[in-house]
Structures are given as C-alpha cells and as structure tokens.
Amino acid sequence: MKNRLKLRIINSYLTSTISITFVLLLLGVFSLLLLNVKTLSTYAKESIIISVILKPTAEKPEILNFQKELDNKKYCKETDFVTKERAAEELKISVKEDFTEILGYNPLPESINIKLNAKYSNTDSIAVIEQQLSNNKIVSDVFYFKSLVHQVDNNLKNIGMIVSSLSSLLFLIAITLINNTIRLEIYSKRFSIKTMQLVGATKKFIIKPFLIKSLFHGIITSLVSVSILVLFILYFQSNIYGLIPIKNIALTFVIVFITGITITVGATFISVLKYIETKMENLY
Q1: Domain boundary assignment for the chain
Q2: Checking DSSP bridges between strand 76-82 and strand 139-143, what pairing results, if any?
Q3: Which CATH architecture has domain 49-144?
Q4: What is the pLDDT of residue 72?
C-alpha cells in the first residue's frame, strides 16, 4: 500500500510537471513570435528587390554616380550593381545552360538592384520611387514583383493580428490550465490541510510548506521549458540569430520563468487558503 501510494504521488507530480512544462513551452514560443513580429516584418519587407534596368548607352561613370545618388536616398537600404557578365553567369546557373554560346552574344543589360528600407517597402511608396527612377536618363526600365509587394503587405498585417490574438488567448489558457492542475493537486491533500488546522496549526504554518514546494515546482517547470526553447533556438540558430535580436530571446525566457513561478505559487496560495476556510463537512 505504501509503495502504491508513493507511486501515485510520483505519477501525480510528474503529470503535473509535464502539463505545466508543455503549457509554458507553448507560451514561450508564442511570446517569441509576438516579440519579433516587427523584426520579421522588417526582414520580409527589406528582402524585396527593385531592379533598375540601365540603357546600353549608359557609361560607367554615369552608372557609378547614379548608384551613389541611390545610396544617399532615404528609401534605399543598399544597392548592388550587376554587370552584363554577372547577369549572364547568374542566369546560366539558373537555367543550367550557357545561352551566350547559343546566341553568340550576351543580350542581358546591366542593372542596379535596390533593397528598400522597411518604411518605404509598401505599394504606394514603391510606386512613387518607380516613377522617380524611370525619369532618370540612363534608366531603361524598373522591374519588381508588384503582386509580391501587395501580398507581403497584406500578409504581414494579418500575421501580426493572428499572432497577437493567439498569444493573448494562449496566455489565458496557460493561466487556466496551470491553475486547474495546481487546484487538483491541492484538492487531493485537502484532508491533510484540514487535519493540520484542527490540531492547532496556524494559516501561515499550513501554507508555508505548500508555497515552498510550489515555488520549487514553478522553478523546475520554468527551467525545463526554457531549456527546451534554448534547444529549439540552437537547432535553428543559422536562421534565427541575426534575424531575431538576442534581447528578445532573453525577454522570452524571463516571461516564461516569471509566468511559471507566479501562476504556480499564486494558484497554490489561493487553493490552500480555500480549503483552510472550508468547513469539514464541505470537504466530502
């Protein structure tokens, strides 16, 4: 009987720990996404490229002066001059065939690729920029994926709203699930709480060991959740580092840690106090 009781207690503790850890892990993932929605939005917008096709008659000094002018524009993040030879090499890699040998010459024009600052990477701003670029005497054409710009603009707005809503909902679910888990655990010990009270133990004396245990429980579950998040980030570090600021990752860990401890300790305090103030006949 003693072994069975110990086994039941261990199983109950493990189940509680796994449940809370899983909830905190999900909370951590969505917190990480919520904190970095703006960063991800900036990254996506600044990945859009405008290709400025230059006229064949454009001289090298004119091109360099034009590129320098573009670099000084507020909307420009960076520029990249693509020569005819480089364009041919890139197309050769893409189509896996040397078309210059077939044609006998290189028909591709020289161009300047522009990456915009995120603030200007929207449909209206790009239309104005396109008009300004087209007015330059050495510019033959301006090319970019208009549908992609529009799609990115709309999708980022929707993603921001969805992540914010899901994060808020998950936070409420986390509080509810962890609170219910703790309450069930305390419920199984309600008679022990009432027995201590009947033999003269004070509220402080009864509550203190439960709070210490819940604090330890909260620390353990929070550390396990944070450890899993660390492994997750390390696995995708080649894509995440440089894209997501380290301070946001650290803030996510703090949120998970504080949330885990606060909810477990708070729920324990409320539950134990409830059974202390409950009459004996109402415990059944």
Answers
A1: 2-41+153-282, 49-144
A2: unpaired
A3: 2-Layer Sandwich (3.30)
A4: 92
